[in-house]
Each structure stands twice: as structure tokens, then as C-alpha cells.
Structure to design on (149 residues):
């Protein structure tokens, strides 16, 4: 009887530890149970930074999330910083169904075109890069051949 209580307590502690580990991994490195697909990576003119756009799909009960992260040239994970995140309510959407983010470098500045209703963190500078934002309009969609639905 005493051994079965010890086994139960140890089992509960093990399960709680695993849950905490998964939550910690999820918070630092992205959702463990989601599919992430890189859509585009754009190198800065000075070849020192890379803007990477990817889409996250966590399944049928959630919307698409499109994010842009900024990396340094060495892909140092400590330099990763999320600049913008578009939720599933954003419009227009790509043909595949996710919100659109289009990064354009102009010297050391990064201009980010995005779908309306984007959840923007509002960063105007990150890793020595000046950032500005603009909603997508028809002229940008045509200029960069962005396919929308």
C-alpha cells in the first residue's frame, strides 16, 4: 500500500515536470505542436541581417499566424526577435489562406507591408534596424506580384 502511494506521487511529479518542460520549450522556441513553414527570407543590402517570414499552423481549431523575425548574418539564435505577427482575422490573405507579410529592405531600413488587422508589436527599431509598417494596398500587391484570394 505504501509503495503504491509513492509510485502515484512520483508519477504525478513526473507528469507535472513534463508539462512544465513542454511549456518552457513552447515559450522560448515556438509551439511544439505547430507546423512552421518559411515563406520568404530577405537579406539586407549590407548582408548583415535577414528578415524571415514564416507561417505557423497549429491545427483546425486555430487561425494561421504569419510572423516576421529578424536574424543576424550568423543566424545566432539570440538575435531572433519577432517583429510582427498577423492573426487569422487579417485581410487580405494569401491564396493559401494565411495573412500576408512582405518585408522590403531600403538601405538599413526595413519596411514591412502587412494585411490589415495585423497584431503589430510596434517596434520601430530592433538590432540596429529601423522598422516602419504599412498596410498592403493594391499598388503594392501588384508591384510585388503578391497572390491574394
Amino acid at each position: 500500500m505504501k509503495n503504491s502511494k509513492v509510485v502515484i506521487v512520483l508519477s504525478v511529479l513526473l507528469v507535472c515536470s513534463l508539462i512544465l518542460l513542454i511549456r518552457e520549450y513552447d515559450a522560448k522556441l515556438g509551439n511544439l505542436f505547430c507546423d512552421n513553414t518559411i515563406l520568404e527570407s530577405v537579406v539586407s543590402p549590407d548582408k548583415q541581417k535577414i528578415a524571415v517570414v514564416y507561417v505557423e499552423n497549429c491545427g483546425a481549431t486555430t487561425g494561421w499566424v504569419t510572423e516576421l523575425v529578424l536574424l543576424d548574418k550568423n543566424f545566432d539564435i539570440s538575435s531572433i526577435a519577432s517583429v510582427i505577427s498577423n492573426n487569422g482575422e487579417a485581410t487580405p490573405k494569401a491564396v493559401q489562406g494565411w495573412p500576408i507579410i512582405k518585408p522590403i529592405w531600403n538601405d538599413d531600413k526595413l519596411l514591412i507591408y502587412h494585411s490589415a488587422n495585423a497584431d503589430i508589436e510596434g517596434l520601430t527599431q530592433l538590432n540596429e534596424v529601423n522598422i516602419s509598417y504599412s498596410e498592403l494596398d493594391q499598388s503594392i500587391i501588384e508591384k510585388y506580384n503578391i497572390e491574394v484570394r
Remarks:
- The radius of gyration is 20 Å.
- The longest strand covers residues 35-43.
- Residues 12 and 28 are 25 Å apart (CA to CA).
